[in-house]
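Internal tracking record. Fields below are filled automatically when a chain is submitted to the structure queue. Please do not edit lines marked as system-generated. If the sequence contains nonstandard residues, flag them in the REMARKS field before resubmitting.
Queue: standard
Priority: normal
Entity type: single polypeptide chain
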Amino acid sequence: MNKSVNPLTYLTTCAATVLSLSMSYQATASELPLEQIKLPAGFQIDTYAENVENARQMALGNKGTVFVGSRRAGNVYALIDSNKDFKADKQILLAQGLNMPSGLAYHQGSLYVAEVDKIWRYRDIENSLPKVPQPELVYNKLPSERHHGWKNIKFGPDGLLYIPVGAPCNVCDDPLPFSSIMKLNVDTKEVTTVAQGVRNSVGFDFHPETGELWFTDNGRDMMGDDLPDDELNRVTQEGQHFGFPYVHNADIKDPEFYDAEKAKLNTPPALNLGAHVAALGMEFYLGEQFPEAYRGNIFIAQHGSWNRSSKVGYRVMQVVLNGSEVAGYLPFATGWLQGEESWGRPVAVLTLEDGSLLVSDDAADEVYRISYQAK
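SYSTEM-GENERATED OUTPUT FOLLOWS
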């Protein structure tokens, strides 16, 4: 397995390069066919930042800095819109050569970055930029397996850092912490299992009224085009089991690992999202720019299929809620997939302070901004 590059070493040797990149980057007009993206009436999509290699999860700083992780690239970025025109005009390379730093979170002035097996903290990050503060190692006891090892992290209403640990396989029955979502007290290092039987969650958020954790989960492969569905799940009790690897969705028996007794532990999903759509980042929309009908609903980025006879996903979906119950599921942004050819793959969503919605794309190396203006 490739070892990650220590961010301390990187920052010591490359500080001058980082500063140079931060000062020289200027956003330019995108050449991507954004006119192919279909949105509801009144919405439009524009480029927020381009040349953000392998853009994955995003986090928003108190001063409006958009932080972006990556997976294949091993980089972490800071995007700054200094003239407030909703286009990033500076890109700062915070770190590179890391071990799949897909996930990050901003909390109390600090940026937290998740490698496969470590969590790092950059204190007082926005007040330090363009200089990059030295990272501190917060936690180093995560599994080192890279299969489903990339993370999506976020602080919960309880002030704890929520961290998924995916199954190190397509389907297997490995012990905890695999196939779980855990939460970490970053001060005491105490770890608690929040959900288990979770194959691979790369997106979650907390219900704005109940505080409950809702998460996407990618279904297993090699059961055909239409089985099983990816899931949207809701945690109503700490430690709940969500079926993997014994049973999928509400009652689909796994052909290799089905166990009748263990299957009884399964918590059925709040919503089936479609097979192989690769549902990743999700967020409750709490902004005020979009019409009232969108507020409190969930947006889910679907990365798109890789092992299906006809492609599906490659879009942003909207889950309509009535309180804590699902009332609808419909496309919000489509067009990255044209026939069987795709030119982009949405990964994560993030609401800006003005209520517009950012969407990251790790295939096109872009971050888009979707906004609304009544006619």
